[in-house]
Amino acid sequence: MFEELKTHFGKLVSLTPEEFAYVSSHFTSRKFRKHQFLVQQGSPVSHDFFVVKGLLKSSFVNEQGKDHILQLAMEDWWISDYQAYFNQTDATLDITCVEDVEVLCLSLANREKLCRELHQIEHFFRKKSNAGYVALQRRILSFMNQSASERYHELLQMYPSLAQRLPKTLLASYLGVSRETLSRLSA
């Protein structure tokens, strides 16, 4: 399970085997079954999750009961309720397993410790945060400037395997369209 994390870190920083052993000692591994919660609205958020295997969704259910998907995460991606994680407050989002999942969990205390002690880890998380900001901005702008069809085709182009793994109802929710509209778009 830690081999995937080593490869992931290696894309942005160089760590000696000893440094990686030290870094990986700050993570815990967990397995979850399909439909289980990693994070639930109203509960404390103690970890950031690196996805080793599986597919997750981060969502918010509004007062009318409509599920709004903010983020999806598959292998080699990170996911958490970052507002709650960094501010150490209760979750405003649910994070649930779309498939059976294996994750590596990093507490905020361990993340801060690693960033203080190893410049490469601080650099790694800064780069990951920057990429996350860019992705979030792109997603928001796509809702403001693109049609449902354009959003759907962009998702297919950028993440073809993700679109195939995601049930149609969740794909529709992620794109901000009805299931019927998605059927028309994919026809």
TrEMBL record:
Residues 30-116 form the Cyclic nucleotide-binding domain. SUPFAM superfamilies: cAMP-binding domain-like. It comes from the Bacteria. This is cAMP-binding protein. It comes from Dyadobacter endophyticus.
